Amino acid sequence: MPALPTLPLPLPRRPSDSRRRGRLLLFLIVLVSAAAALAYLSCPSSALTPPRPAVRADADCCRGTQGLELWGPAVKWGSNHRLPSAAACCASCKAMCPHAEDGACRCNSWVFCGDERRCKDRLGECWLKKQKDVMAPAVIASGEDVMWTSGLVFAKGEGIVALETSLGTLHIQLLPGCAPRSVDYFIELLGLHNCAGCRFYRAEGRGNVWDAEGNHDKNAAFGPPYALLQGTLEVDGVPFKGITREACPEVKRGSIAWVGSGPEFLISLANHEEWKDAYTVFGHVLPEDMAIAEEMALLPASTDVWSNVTVKVLRDPVYFKVKRSCHASSV
Length: 331
Known about the structure:
Layout: H1 28-41, E1 65-66, E2 68-70, E3 74-76, H2 86-94, E4 109-113, H3 116-119, E5 126-129, E6 139-142, E7 148-152, E8 160-165, E9 168-174, H4 180-192, E10 199-204, E11 228-232, E12 255-258, E13 264-268, E14 281-285, H5 290-296, E15 301-306, E16 309-319, E17 321-324
Antiparallel strand pairs: 1-7, 2-6, 3-5, 4-5, 4-7, 8-9, 8-17, 9-14, 10-11, 10-16, 11-13, 12-13, 12-14, 15-16
Helix pairs in contact: 1-4
């Protein structure tokens, strides 16, 4: 297959976006800590439902967050379990989810020490742990002075957040192995119980460029339209800290990714292999909800030009709430 041409990326930021910094600051850390227990109660315990096999959407990704030490009961002690890298430690945890005997995830979080200077005789320790609630994990320490790297592993039906709109709910499967810092941000959002200002403001259908499965017509241009929804995940009054670049797999139909370092993001309605590895993909819309995204792309919109890119801006933005979901994924 011939190499795809290098194309200008059709995701400029909104010219009018001032990021709404500097308004009343919320006590973010206090709210997140106080809401951790409530977050657990907002969704029925996984113990009440049959165990499900692990989601493999991020099977090729095994990343963690440096400077983070997760707490919780150990299912395998790091003092007797040493591995060469954080990725190997992550893979060791994934191998225990599902467990062959009962189908449950025996391990849903891992902690690794890979800094030779600071770890010393603990170098290579890989602790495999079981969080009571993987969407409100127990954290004992975080920051640049923490020598540990930690990550999460979601079983099927876990790690799903709901974007509730007036048109219906988009269920998003988060990918902790590909984008752990992005997942951390969503855990913070859930703790706030607030996403005031979160909205979609741009929506473009597939037109005659891509078919219903998201495949590109080889005789067509790559847009406009660009087959995407674009919006923001910044909460009014809460300064957004940019998300550093994480894994950038190919953007597929249903992929959800940051525009730059956020808080603006996109949901793709097509397979955009022409974008190569330009965007951090942190999740995907469950297939059964893509009809809602397609419906949004048909809403009344006006044409505008941002940084020489022709876009369609919704006449009325679609606001949404971010909530924890107990939705059982079908993928």
